Amino acid sequence: MPNISVKINGTLTSVREGITILEACGTAGVEIPTLCYHPDLSLAGNCRMCLVEVEGWRTLAIACVTPVIPNMVVNTHSKKVRHARRTVLKLLLASHNVNCPECERNKNCELQELAEKHNITSNEYQTSPKPESIEEVSPGIMRDNSRCIMCTRCVRTCEELQSVAVIKPVGRSSSVTISTFMDRSLNDVPCTQCGQCVIRCPTGALFETSEVRPVWEAIENPDKFVVFQTAPAVRVGLAEALGLPIDRSTGQMVAAIRGMGVDRVLDTDFTADLTIIEEGHELISRLKSALVDGDESVALPMMTSCSPGWIKFIEHKYPELLSNVSTCKSPQQMFGALAKTYLAGKEGIDPAKIVSVSIMPCTAKKFEKERPEMRDSGYKDVDYVLTTRELARMIDEAGIDFEKITEEKFDRWMGDSTGAAVIFGATGGVMEAALRTAYEIVSGQEIPFDGLNIEPVRGMEGIKEAAITMPERMATGFEFLAGVTLKVAVAHGLANAKILMDKVRSGEADYHFIEIMACPGGCLGGGGQPIPTSPEIRQKRTESIYAEDAALHFRKSHANPEIQLLYAEFLKEPLGHKSHELLHTHYIKRD
Amino acid sequence: MSRNPQKIVFDAVAKYGSGREAVVQILTEINRELGYIPEESIVAVADAVGVSNAEIYSVISFYSFFSTEPRGRNIIRLCTTISCEMKGSREILETIEAELGIKAGATTPDGRITLETTSCIGLCDQAPAILVNDTPHTRLTPDETRRIIAGLE
What is the domain extent for residue B12? Predict the structure, then answer.
């Protein structure tokens, strides 16, 4: 497209033809307020926050959906525009439950911020305040439609990014609400609990089901032994959730949690490494059954099982492919099962006294821990799940100065981690970690990528593919893989998962191994991460993740010393009896 | 004798296709034949068109002539928009409610008549107006309204 000339607030600017007024203003450095607009989503143009004046036009233009034309003269902050925007804001606020101090999104709300910026101190349209109406309590997500402004970001997220489409506008005109099929609970429709709607909601109409209070109670109870695990992506999101620049903050995170009075601060990365050992062996075992024994009942491609939103998605949408999913529990649930068995033994603590809390970038993890299968330790393996945002609120409440706190290290037995585990937080990370280990198990040599960085599976492309050819000389027992080309695929965001699954179902795909993460960008873009999200924010978090990987001494899961100890003392061998009892699971078909 | 809900969807898809643009036509057929759109039909339409159940439900909720609840053999739709209201639709509503012993939105216990209010039906010049099934009745008076109701099977 050629460039055209437009005048924005009196300054001539050259912009690409066909872009919107909003985009043109962006390149000119002029900020326009928006609400229904989101960089990850299609255009809706329904909130009217971004109205601008175009000279010669009878009415104001909606900047986010109106393309620029040659010689357009745009005024973004004229008297007429400011008046219209204030009216739009007041009308939105008039039908909004303005009870900010009690809202989860207080001080992190786009509507509140705009009201402040536009000096809305009184509202002549305000009638009686809308009553609060918690319409939904599902394990991961709550809804309060009295805070909803009908921007439909959640609706577009669910359909466009996740291909789930369980929430839609229902009704007409002033009686529209965002609802579900037959107005059911999110529990009773194929919602994956991924929380992508939550991190795109401009207000507090959608938020996580909080467990902050019971976790404080457990910490304050002297009879309880509180064990925290922290997921890989939390350490690149927590600083941001506390209002600091995006950066990794592993040491500060550990220190802050310990400062809250938690008995042991341990790492989900430890069980991410364990997942790689178990899942790597499972993949090799499946390949052997298929290639050597000719067993046609072995399901290939094998698919990863770390992302609980993805698991619930496949249980609803592709139940015929469930045997393809690795039987490995997610790192969170492996950790839970070991905390109340292995760790209890190591620490000499009665497992009944252990309260197992996980800090996750995820809302679906709250659903996962409630699955009836997740009690293999003889107790509920994970008692509470907090999102990155909930942890930030606890750190604030404890009065801890995160910026100034001295870095500390994880506690022992389940606190060691490797770079391979950290990258679980980014799309492609599980695949890369698995390949680093599996290649070495079968060939006895390191995978031949510069610095162990498997670039083809990294990055933000929706679906990534790679093919890795095994060397001719293999380790003893794995000769059947000599010269075999291993084909892998990685998808993030469930709309991309759907594309891959349709290919697998039709027999069009010939992959051996597939990694799926429910959320765009992987866990670092999870529904429990700081708000807002955008491609740029996810890119920055990704850079933090790979920086952490590069900085760690051990880069391969099987090099983790505590993992080696765990096998030597407790599990004995990968896919062994104990592993099957504690670390593996099964899936169910859901309507 | 009505066709079963799946059969109606199957036949309607054969007639109108399975694109998103066919949804309203398909739903109209179901609603006409059964008097409402049952849950199983919504699921069948969603499957045929390849969209979520929630999307079909959303479409149904937009149109006041569609219902997801069973309704009476006859449907009286009373316009309550401004022109009809100025010409006395409120009195007509009270007349019908008294005559049938039900409130707007309900169905008589014998399943004979469902009473609904509706937005403008384009008969402002002949207000107040009702639709009885597909037939308009205009310039209504309470007496005329009672006579119409008495004539319904």
Answer: 5-62
Give pLDDT, residue A291.
87
Q: Return the closest-CA partner of residue A431 out of A447, A443, A417.
A: A447
Query: What average pLDDT score do residues A143-166 get?
Result: 96
Which domains, from first to last, does chain A contain?
A: 3-91 (3.10.20.740), 95-208 (3.30.70.20), 271-331+417-582 (3.40.950.10)
Say what the ipTM of the complex is.
0.92
Report which secondary-structure segment, H or E, holds A212.
helix A212-220
3-state secondary structure of B46: helix
Q: Catalytic residues of A, which ones?
A: 279, 282, 306, 326, 365, 368, 373, 523
Look at residue A346 in the predicted model and tell me its pLDDT.
Answer: 97
Residue A194 has pLDDT above 90, yes or no: yes
In 3D space, the residue among A105, A102, A35, A103 whose CA is nearest the CA of residue A64 turns out to be A35
- List A residues 178-207 in contact with B (Cβ-Cβ < 8 A): 179-182, 189-190
- Nearest CB among A171, A172, A181 relative to B54 is that of A181
For the stretch A220-259, what's the b/e string if a residue is b when 16 or more beta carbons lie within 10 angstroms of its beta carbon? eeeebbbbbbbbbbbbbbbbbbbeeebbbbbebbbbbbbb
Tokens 């010409």 appear where? Answer: B87
- What average pLDDT does the segment A36-60 reach? 97
Tell if the CB–CB gap between B52 and A169 is shorter than 8 Å: no
CA distances from residue A41 to A197, A298, A430, B63 in whole angstroms, order as listed: 11, 39, 27, 27
Spatial distance between the Cα atoms of B121 and B139, rounded to a whole number of angstroms: 14
Inter-chain touch B52–A172, beta carbons under 8 Å: no
Q: Do A182 and B64 touch (CB under 8 A)?
A: no
